[in-house]
Amino acid sequence: MNKDDILLALRSSRSGFVSGADLAASTGVSRTAVWKHIKKLEREGYLIEAIPSKGYRLTSSPDVMIVSDLKRGLKARTIGREIVHLTETASTNTLAMDLAHKGAADGTVVIAETQTGGKGRLGRAWTSPRGNLYLSVILRPAVPVHKAPLITLMGAVAVAAAIRENLGIPAGIKWPNDILIDGKKIAGLLTEMSAEPDRIRHIVLGIGVNVNMDVRELPPEVRKTATTLAAVTGTRVDRTALARTLLAGLEKWYQRFLKNEADVLDAWKELNVTLGNRVAVSGAGTMLEGLARGIDAEGRLIIRLDDGTLRPVTAGDVTIVKGKT
Ligand code: BT5
Question: Predicted confidence band at 325 (pLDDT cuts at 50, 70, 90)?
Fold first, then answer.
């Protein structure tokens, strides 16, 4: 029994009130222990009313996730079997890579309420105030190393699909790692890998979703290109429900990926907003411009240059120059 059980009991009470005696009975501890847990919850920012004849009632909660709440309804075969939840860390990806080196199981998830050194690609920063989702999943897929980029695509499908399923918003994927709503970035993915030449040791799939933060918390130059789910829906979004849908979706898409990668590529094509557009791709000191024609079996973007040559691109930043005509 811990304070999370008390919290769940308070939350699931129909009348709102639960007596100390009932809490003690249902959680199997003394009333003094219940009282101590209540005090602990109050120190964490929960407001709990106590009325002698009625008991305790939860009147307001801080916006933090509770792992037992998150796990409820999650039929995790792999992803989310283990969930590590932290109030703050430098980067969930860095911590997940560390845990993976130390042998953490396939599917372990690391979630933080805020990151002090959130990472984007190529040494860029991911602004990570409270109110959003920051999570990293440790994966140990038995697939060849050259298939690793497909994990980013698989993750992007799961994120876009979870936003659609949970909130009914048409989120789209911009190759390789952005999730956009109306052209603005709502989520980003960062995949890191430890591998031998012919074997993946582990991959960490990091996902950051802008949920309830105030857009003004972003650096001014990022504000123009980014948005949040709360801004799009005009209301506060339940992060735990979204995280649950996302983890269940990752489980589904990861199993599909292991069985038949083509399913993931098909879903990616359905959800992407890159193909069919004229794009500029920058990366590795070069700049290409052409028509985004397709995606190959290894997740590379195929660009048709103006001279008709087809050029596969492994990594880079894509700007849409001109939309589909
Ligand atoms: C990404 O990189 O989009 C990868 C983001 C991955 C973040 C997750 S959070 C959990 C896990 N732990 C980590 O440390 N990271 C992962 P990239 O495509 O390089 O985009 C980075 C750029 O996006 C920055 O240079 C900014 O311009 C912009 N940006 C930064 N923070 C943002 C935010 N919160 N929302 C939208 N755009 C942002």
Answer: low
CATH number of 3-60: 1.10.10.10
How, if at all, do strands 83-89 and 109-115 pair? parallel
* Dist. CA 127 → ligand 1 center (Å): 7
The CATH architecture of the domain made up of 67-271 is 2-Layer Sandwich (3.30)
Atom number of ligand 1 nearest to Cα 118: 14
What pTM was estimated for this model as a whole? 0.86
Q: Where are the alpha helices (DSSP H) in 131-283?
A: 149-167, 220-223, 229-233, 239-259, 261-271
- Mutate-to-test residue for ligand 1 from 99, 113, 126, highest number of ligand atoms within 8 A of CB: 126
CATH topology of domain 278-320: SH3 type barrels. (2.30.30)
Nearest CA to ligand 1 atom 11: 206
User: Per residue in 44-71, pLDDT tens?
Assistant: 878 999 998 899 999 887 777 767 778 8
Q: Are 168 and 293 in contact (CB under 8 A)?
A: no
The domain limits of the chain are 3-60, 67-271, 278-320
DSSP 213: S
Contact in structure between 209 and 306 (CB atoms under 8 Å): no
Contacts 24+ apart (CB under 8 A), 240-245: 240/65, 240/66, 240/69, 240/70, 241/166, 242/133, 242/162, 242/163, 242/166, 242/167, 242/209, 242/211, 243/65, 243/70, 243/111, 243/133, 243/135, 244/70, 244/72, 244/73, 244/74, 245/162, 245/165, 245/166
Nearest to 97 by CA among 154, 71, 63, 136: 136
Atom of ligand 1 nearest to the CA of 127: 31
